[in-house]
Every structure is written in structure tokens, then in C-alpha cells.
Amino acid sequence: MAEKSVSTDSLAMEAAKEYKGRKFRVAIVGCGGVAQMHMTALRQLPEVEVVAGVDIRADRITAFQETWGVTKLYKDWKKMLKEVEPDGVSVCTPNGVHAAPSIDAAKAGCHVICEKPMAMNPAECERMIAASKKAGRKFTIGFQYRYHPNTQFLKRARDHGEFGDIMFVKCQALRRRGIPNWGVFGQKKLQGGGPMIDIGVHVLEMAHYFMGSPKPIAASGNVWTYMGNKPSKVVSHWPNWDYKTYTVEDLAIGQIRFTNGALLQIEASFVAHIEKDVWNFSFLGTKGGGQWDPPMVFSDHHDTMLNTSPYYVGSQSGFQELFVLKLRNWVDGCMKNALLEAPGEAGLAVQKMLDGVYRSATAGREVTIR
Ligand SMILES: NC(=O)c1ccc[n+]([C@@H]2O[C@H](COP(=O)([O-])OP(=O)(O)OC[C@H]3O[C@@H](n4cnc5c(N)ncnc54)[C@H](O)[C@@H]3O)[C@@H](O)[C@H]2O)c1
Asked: How far does the centroid of ligand 1 lie from the alpha carbon of residue 183, in Å?
């Protein structure tokens, strides 16, 4: 992964010179749930110093200061950018507030890591990429599942031709009962959608990365809302979501066509009537197939059909460990010009697929992805 691809070219030397003898100064925009995971990860990177936090909620600001000892706190990221002049900005706000701070941070000369999904729609993603490119700064999207050892194992096998051409991939992000009961995850205006854009995006990003990032050209799908917008007495781990403001789907099923002929199916739900939660992708190739969890390869060798499981793929598979890997990749990208595993273009491709499924559901037919 990234560490191996640290470039020794002139850009790398330039980047190293910029940060010589000092720390990489990061500001967090949005000090809620996921920001705590960013902080925990960033504290494990000795070359990083978190210098400021921004949130519109006073209680979040106070908690951020008390927990992490960060003293420069703001309600407005524009003011923070002007006064603090950080090197990098981590955008941890709700989906509808991803594009604006990312673009403003790039314009202020900052590198950016933005949480998933990249934005509300592909047009916003394009503006975010353009702003970073114009500023000559790095932009990465917080897709941590591509760093997971299972994904890396399957990607290595695919790169070595183990599966031949990948024809079909089935992605599943299905919760039996798991509507977020915090934040604004049920509000379409602020999130862009429900389980498809919130959790489907995770499995979609790792599967698309595994496939070698083929270009999506068409989408077909449907979405249904049948539970989230009603009160429920059912006992569950995540009770009492805000059903009164719930305007997103409960279940989304979509199919994506790619220019190379491959087809991908995505199934995402907060409330699926299934035996237990599923978080997985499986695939069929011309020479072999496989699955992500548990990682397995199904192929033919020595005139024999083999089902193969790796003995060891790596240990950094915990949720928090994946955050360390993704932030490490971003910081290495900024400070050493290392290859970014999740550049803006990856975020845009995933956003086009999500957007295609939602557009198709509205149109009631297959739609083109451009
Ligand atoms: N990568 C992952 O696994 C993962 C996990 C959880 C959340 N996320 C993503 O992170 C983002 C935030 O999710 P969360 O669970 O932390 O939500 P959250 O509601 O806990 O936190 C978001 C914070 O942003 C603040 N905020 C809103 N508007 C703002 C503005 N204009 N300026 C400054 N602050 C503002 C809110 O007050 C809140 O404190 C979402 O996009 C979500 O999809 C990613």
C-alpha cells in the first residue's frame, strides 16, 4: 500500500522540505462522532498536531476541548482557516456540509481529508476535486475499507490474475435493525439519502477498488421506505430514532453496469428482515470467484476445484485501526507525496453510482451515468 509507494521524485522532496523540522498542523471541522475516531487515529501519528476544532454546537466544542485539549475552537470554518492557517483539514460534518468546507480549505491552501460519502451529488464532488487541483493540494476521501486486510488480500489476488475478468460483484450492507438514533442520518435534505449513501457506500467503495475501479456507465435500482418514518416498539440495539424527520429510504437495491461489461449489485438497508446483519461482497470472475468475509477464493488448480482460505492476511482490521491506516495514507500523501489510495476521483466514481441508483429509482428505469 501507500508506504511502499512513497515517491522519491521532486514532488516528494518538495513536500518533505515544506514540513521539515515541524509538525503537520491539522484542523477538524465537525467535532461529533466520527471526529473522535479521527482524533484517536491522528494522536497515533507523531508528525501530526491537531491545532483547531470547528463545530456549530457549543456542547460539541466544549466536549472536544475537554477530551482532546485542543484550545483553538471555532463556530465558523472560514474564520478558523484565516486565523489558524492549518496545513490540513479533516472534514467530519454531515454529508450536506462536506463540499463547502472542503472547497474553502483547498482555496486556503490546505490539504483535505473528507469523510464518506464524498458529498451529496457528483457535481459537488467535481467542484471539490477542481478546488484541490487548482490549489495544488491533496484531497482524499475517508474510505477506510480499502485498507482492510481482506480487501488488500483480494486485490493482490486479482492483480495477479487469480480471478480472470470480474463479471459480477454482489455487495451487501444490510442491518436487521439499525437506523442511526443520533445526527441527521434520516434527513434527506442534509444527507442525500439513507442506507445506500450512508452504509452501502462502504461496501461499494471497497468492491469498486477491488475491481480495479472500472468506469460506471448505467444504473438501475429501487428504494423503499416502510419503517423508518413510523414509531416502533420493537426492542433493538438502536431504538428511538427520530421517525418524525425521517425522509430517506429503508432499503435500496441497485445494479451498476461498467464499460468493461461487469455488473455490480448493491443491497443496502437499515431495517432488513434478515437473519442477521450482512457486511460483505462476493464476486464471480472468468477464472475464479471469492468473497470478502471470511476471505475466500474459489478457483480451479491441478484439475481440481479449490476453495482456499488465507492463513493470515494482516492484523489491522479493527474499525479504529482502519482509521489509522486511512489517516496515515493521507498524511503520507501530504508530507511525502505518497500515492493516495482514495483520491477524489474514487469518491466521484462511487458518488456517480449512488446517484445513479437514486435517479433510477425516481425515474423507474435504467439511467445513464456520465
Ligand atoms: N468512515 C466512517 O466509517 C464513518 C463513520 C461515521 C460517520 N461518518 C461520516 O462522518 C460524517 C459525520 O458523521 P457523525 O456520525 O460524526 O455525525 P455527528 O452528527 O455525530 O457529527 C457531525 C458534527 O458536525 C457538526 N456540524 C454540522 N454542521 C456544521 C457546520 N456548518 N460547521 C461545523 N460543524 C458542523 C455537528 O454539529 C456535529 O457535531 C458523515 O458524513 C458520516 O457519513 C463516517
From this structure: 7
